[in-house]
Amino acid sequence: MKNQKNQVRIIGGLWRGQKIDFYDSPGLRPTPDRVKETLFNWLSFHIADANCLDLFTGSGALGLEALSRGAKHVTFVDSQYLTIQKIRDFTEKHDVSHAHFVHGTVPKLSLDVMHSFDIVFIDPPYKQGLVNVSISWLEHHRYLSHDAYVYVERAVDDEPLRLPRNWAVLKEQTAGQVNYLLIKRSQ
Predict the structure, then answer these.
(1) If you classify domain 4-185 with CATH, what class do you get?
(2) Are the beta carbons of 131 and 158 closer than 8 angstroms?
(3) Of 3, 19, 30, 55, which residue is the least packed, with the fewest Cβ within 10 Å?
(4) Rounded to the nearest 5°, which phi and psi values hold at 144?
(5) 95, 98, 33, 31: which is closest to 59 by C-alpha?
């Protein structure tokens, strides 16, 4: 019998109700269904045909949810090889050809992509300073489309956000000890 603790559920789209098995690693805390539902309601008019980047993939729930809801392409990035392999197994089982997998960490990572990203999910381990590092890394490498959306999930008592001038918080909510935001980048 599978450990229910190491599974998350896709809540909408083509794979609604499907369970995702994930590799358990220290600090991993999959985004709760309630938060995912809010996030994808915020993105409902932007997800179809979007190129997405799922940094700090973890369970894969955000990137797979995006694919389930019609994203054109998702690049999954994680420092744990077994994490990437679990998500690759899920996409192969469902004949997904528009997913790319990268084993690595921000900011040491360089992506070899032929497109910019319309939506980025940043949900790193808490209190390690990785949110601001990721934001700087995205801007420095010019990985984002002109009007990209960036989702950030972090601890409520994490360090303050340092956003570039052309980034603006559109939506923000808190659930328990989790603060989550939708940010828009413009030219």
Answers:
(1) alpha beta
(2) yes
(3) 3
(4) -100, 145
(5) 31
pTM here is 0.92
Residue position matching structure tokens 């994808």: 40
Tokens matching residue 25: 């690693």
Integer Cα distance of 137 and 106 in angstroms:
7
What is the C-alpha to C-alpha distance for residues 83 and 177, in angstroms, rounded to an integer?
25
Tens digits of pLDDT across the chain (187 residues): 344 568 888 999 999 999 888 877 766 677 888 899 999 999 999 999 999 999 999 889 999 999 999 999 999 999 999 889 999 999 999 999 999 999 999 988 889 888 899 999 999 988 899 999 999 999 999 999 999 999 999 999 999 999 999 999 999 999 988 999 999 998 7
